[in-house]
Amino acid sequence: xxxxxxxxxxxxxxxxxxxxxxxxxxxxxxxxxxxxxxxxxxxxxxxxxxxxxxxxxxxxxxxxxxxxxxxxxxxxxxxx
Length: 80
What we know:
By secondary structure, the protein is mainly α. It has 3 helices and no strands. It has helices at about 35-40, 45-55, 65-80.
């Protein structure tokens, strides 16, 4: 049985960029991890900076400035 799709999933069958509440029984996460999940992933600030600085996989280039990356890492650090 295929996993449930979010109501806003495109009709093409591609998963929506939706994060399902990880506390819900039987929940399946679709899309990117939450900032809280990233905070508890064990990645260091340097690893996050490298990840955010370079395009990867099929994801679009976010083109974040160094200041924006530092701000995002600072926010993620507050969630640890």
